[in-house]
Each structure stands twice: as C-alpha cells, then as structure tokens.
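Bench log, entry 3. Co-assembly request; chain sequences pasted below exactly as received.
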Amino acid sequence: MSKIFPKSANALPLQILIFLGVLGVVAAAGITYYATPAYLRVGYQPVQPVPFDHSLHAGQLGMDCRYCHASVEKSGTSSVPAAQTCMNCHSIIKPASPLLEVVRKSYETGDPVPWVKIHQAPDYVYFNHSVHVNRGVSCVECHGKVNEMTTVYHAMPHSMSWCLDCHRNPAQRIRNPEDVFNLNSAPLAAQGPAGLKTAEKFIHDWKVKPPQSCSGCHR
Amino acid sequence: MSAHSTDHAAQPAILAEVNPAIIPRAVLVEQNRDFHWITEKVCGIVEGTTPTWWWWCFGLAAVIASFTVSGLVYLVSTGVGVWGHANPVNWAWDIVNFVFWIGIGHAGTLISAILCLLRQKWRTSINRAAEAMTIFAVVCAAIFPVFHVGRIWFAVMPGWLFPFPNSNGIWQNFRSPLEWDVFAVSTYGTVSVLFWYVGLIPDLGTMRDRFTATGNMLKARIYGFFAMGWRGSNRHWSNYEMAYLVLAGIATPLVLSVHTIVSFDFAVSLIPGWHTTIFPPYFVAGAIFSGFGMVMTLMLPLRAVYRLEDLITQYHIDCMCKITLATGTMVGYAYSMEFFIAWYGSNPYEGFAFINRAFGHYAWAYWIMIGCNVITPQFFWFKSVRENTTLVWILSIFVNVGMWFERFVIIVTSLARDFLPSSWGYYSPSIVEIFTFFGTFGVFSFLFLLFIRFVPIMPMSEVKAVIPAADPHAGHHH
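Structure output for the full assembly:
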C-alpha cells in the first residue's frame, strides 16, 4: 500500500479526541464562569448622582429600610424616595452640603433625582416586593447587606435558577417576619433543626406557596 | 383407488433410503461474477465521468430542495402561523411529515442491523444504500420538529431540547414523550451514521488505493482521510468485524424503539383514536413497510441505470417484496384491530373516532390509506408481479403514498373531532406547508445523488464474501 499520509497522522485521531475533550471542558467552564448572571451582574456598582451612603444611614444611624422605601410592604414595587423624604432631615442636617446639591435641586424643581437602577428585573418577569417581605423573605436575601454598602452594588446573581433555589426550598431562606428588615439577622434555618422546624411551620401556617410553574413569574 | 394400491403392492410401505431433492439456493451474485468484476463495477460508478442524467437530476433535486429552504426561511422570519395549524388541529403536516420520514429510515436499519444478526446474506448488496437512505430520511424528518418551534435557536441551544445544566434552573419535562423523541431520534441518527461509516471504511480504503494507483492524489487523500488508515490487515479486519457486530447489536433495538417512542407521542395522550396500546407494534410494522417501499423506489431505478442486475438480483427483489407484503399485512391487521377494539371497548368517543375516520370528512384520506397500504402489498403474493420490475416500482410508490396518508389520517382526524363538538374543525395545509414538505423530497434526492456519485453504493467486501469463490469448501465446514 502506498503511503499518502505521514506517519505522524497515526496519532491524529487521538490528538483530535483529546483536543475536543479539552475544548469541551474549557468551553463549559468558560460559559459557566463568564456567561452566567453570577458573573455578568454581580458587582455592578454604578456611580450615582448623589453619593448616598447606605452604610451610614441604614447601618450606623439604624434607619429602617421602610423610611425611604415606603411602599415595599404594600406594593409590588419598592418605592425610591422623592427628594422630600431626604429633605425631612437634610433641611436641618448639613443643609448646605455640596454633595446634596442634586437633591436640593430636585426638591425645588420637582424633577426626580436621576438614580441609576441597579437591580433590573426583565420585562418578562413579574416580581412583587410585598408578597415576599410579608412572607418572611428579607431584603438581604436579594439585595445583600445594603446596610454595609457605601455605594450600593449588585450583590446577588438574580438568575432564574437563583430565584428557583428559594422557590423550590423556601424553608432554608425564611426569617421571622419581624426580622425581615433587620439586615443583620439570619434565616431561621441557620438556628439549626429547631429553626428549620419553625420555618416549616411558618410556611404551613402562612400558606407560603412560591410558584414553580412558568406562569408564576412569566405572566 | 384400487388400481393405485395394486400398482404399488410390490413396494414396501417405508422407503429404505430417502433421497430428498436438493433445491439450489438462489445465488446472490449472478453470472458467476468474480471479485475483480465486483470491484470494477462498484468503483466504476464513482470513478467514471459524471453522467448527464446525474446532473439533470441533481439540478432538479436542488431546485425542489430550495422550496424547503425558502419555506423554512419564511417560517423563521415570519412565525409558525405561516403553516395551516389552528384550533383544534395544532399538530398536522409537521408531525405527519416527521413520522413519515423517520419511518422510512427504519428499513435501512432493519436491513443493516437485524438482517446482519440473522445472517441474511441478501442484505449485502442493498444495505449501504438503504443505510444512506436512513440517514437522509432522518435529516428530512428532523427538519419538521426543529422548525415547528418557530424560534429555532431554542431548538439548538443546550438546555432546551437536550438536558443541560443552565442558569434558568429548569429541565425538560421528562414525562413527555416528545422529550423521549429527542433522545430516540438523536440516538437513532448518531448510531445510523456510525454504523454506515464503519461499514464504509474498507471500501474507502479501496477507493483511496485505486485513486493512488491512477495518480489522482487529491481524491486519494480525501478518501484516505475518511478511510482512517485502513490497511486491510488481519487485525484491522478482526477489529472491524467486531465493531460492526457490536454496532449491529446496538442498532437492532433501535429498529423497534424509535418508532415505538414516536407512537408514544400519540398513544400516551388521551385523544380518542390515539390512546391505544396497539400503537407501538403497529407503528413499527408501518415504519418497516414504508421503509421497504422507499428502498425499492430507490434501488430499482439505481439497478436499471447502473446495470446492477447481477448484484441486485430477482431474489433480492423477491425478498424485499415479501417483507413489504408481510409488514403491509400486519398494518392491515392493525387497522382492523383498531376498529374491533373501538367496538369491543365500548367507549363511545373511541367508537366515534373510528367511524369518523372511515366515513367522516376525511374519509377520502382514509380510503386512500386503505387502498395503498392494505390492497397494494397483496399484489406481491404473485410471482409474476414480483418479477415485473416496473410494476414493483409503481407499487412501491403506492406504499410511500399510503404510509404518508396513514399518519395524516391518524393525526388529523382525531384532532379535528375531539371531545368538544364546539371546537371541531377542518384542517387544510397552507401553501407554505405543502411546498416545505414537497421540498424535502428534493433535499432527500439531493443527498442521495451525492451519495451515489461519491460513495461506493455497495459494500464490496461484503458482496464478495457471499459469492461461491469466497467459500472454497462450498459450505462443507470441517
């Protein structure tokens, strides 16, 4: 038989197989790390028009989340405060601070402060804040420890699987309703088997039935 | 009577010695063709100049295939509404065409796998082309379920059809037969391609060596690449035979399982006329029936054009006709059994579904189906019919038509008349659907013409193994 390929071609099938195997592993690892919301969203920290410091207000001063985000318990959306809310205090405290210039201007003209939205649920996702915070889901579960953030950033991935992790197994993440706005609290399940039992009882008594069907969120 | 007994009175009642007449087995290669002739004949098809008829057919096939391409482009750019589906018939030509094409593939797998395990030597000269037919039929079949989703990128993205960990945290509905279909058909396609390719390797080696000998190094390298270093050594043959046998073993259950699962698409649902336990065997018999119809539709012209009468003999045609007859009769039995069970089961909806099939708005389709699938194969009882190649070819076309109508009747009649009379309807295909389906024959022919031009259409080594010269001891084993 005549030779039409060099002898090195004998190793080619194995080399191709190894190459494809490595390529597959690298591609899967790369996509998992770089192309999922855990990479693409987490850490997003835009510069805001006002350098509002959550760690000062909600952390050191101990202000309740609901002082500013007032509608969170009653409405699907958690309200972003109007400049009026800021001026309740800042008409007295640091009334002339140059950092608050944008707020004062908004207060005078009525045009809203152009905050940059960080947590953006897609249009095809129905999300209701009130139903979550009234059933023991704390702010911290989705927004992270905002009370420790100088400038707010995207702390959690907010991918669909991340939503479903809790919807499929809410007992692990649920808190006492009085702890929902206490960002330093821990889920009941963190207290061990007794806490988990309390969480399960709460889920039963309060009929916590997080939807897992498509139309639960994609209405 | 008395005269008879007197005549034989002298003879003993029992013969001292029995000499049964030896009926010669049909030869598989006629005219005592030798190894060299087979090689020259099969390789000559690939090596010779491209015949004019091939270019005409290829051009025509490409034009017809363009109907499918344009139909699909229009569908993707516009939406699935361009097909004629509407309540209550939301499954129609798309799944009819899918089942039709996937069924055709089954004959190829039966010939290559089951007949291999059963040592039916007549498979050798038709198995390569039949397997090619299987692969091309799976390609045509896959078009319809993939494109009927409309947004086809979802069909190819990992995590939608095939289970794959994803950031949506969702999985397929594993209880749905449609998902089983994904596994069944993709396995079927993969195994068919592997089986076909492994069988090709020795012949690709032959082609490589012949092109090397004539100095056509480009072709030698191309065939050599696909021959994967085949040298024809004893070790190669030993490994090859084992690989082929293992693949035959893997492919054998697929002949039964693929169409069983396709039938589950219907049988697992609760629609009257679909929800019957006879569906899996009935579908498998129908698939083999339709597949042999298509094998004959393809092989008979091929045999005539390339003068392959010595390799695809009358015995081969007889065998194929008899399998068509057997499976066609099974299908006919299933049709009557469906009616019997509908009556015997006393379910009014089931009863209505079958009366409606035979005498309702789609009765025309039902009787085309009965005519083509039940009556046509009965002609194959007659030797004179089996020996009339033209007639066999025409009958094989009827089989193809009938099996398409079978799927149409099953799918459309049941959906058009389901439980709620208020939602009853009548389905007609849109022009886009008609052209998309018609075009798949172009796609199929396009691929098949490429196959007969560039690939040895018969496994030379296997055909050589069934001629007398390959068996010097003439069947006497020591």
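Chain A has a mean pLDDT of 93. Chain A has eleven helices and no strands.
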